[in-house]
Amino acid sequence: MTQDNKIEFHQRFLDIFTNKELGDIINNATVVTKNCIVIATEDNFFELSADIGDKLDIYCDNHTNKSAKQLTKDEFMLSYKNSPLMEVSHININE
Fold first, then answer.
1. Where in the sequence is the domain holding 60, given as residue range(s)?
2. Per the domain annotation, does 90 fall within a domain?
3. Region 49-67 average pLDDT
4. pLDDT per position as a tens digit, 23-46
5. Helix residue ranges per DSSP H, the chain
6. For a tag site, which of 6, 14, 25, 38 has the least CB within 10 Å?
């Protein structure tokens, strides 16, 4: 974390996503850390992980058919944008 309590993201997130895309993802995420972003939608559970191996891994677990698969950035963005967000409450542990 920086002194103004902003997360310093792993470089892999910054290499893969534009600032606008990353901002939208973060605003809708359930959990955000330096190395991992989790998003829960009505249809899917997405995990974006930068701390395993040498690339950004994007995983999707589908709620309806119980399938799990690894996605490309384009597959993730399409699924993410087409799935309504799940109702969640946001809290900031720094407050």
1. 11-81
2. no
3. 86
4. 999 988 988 999 999 999 988 999
5. 11-16, 19-28, 73-81
6. 6
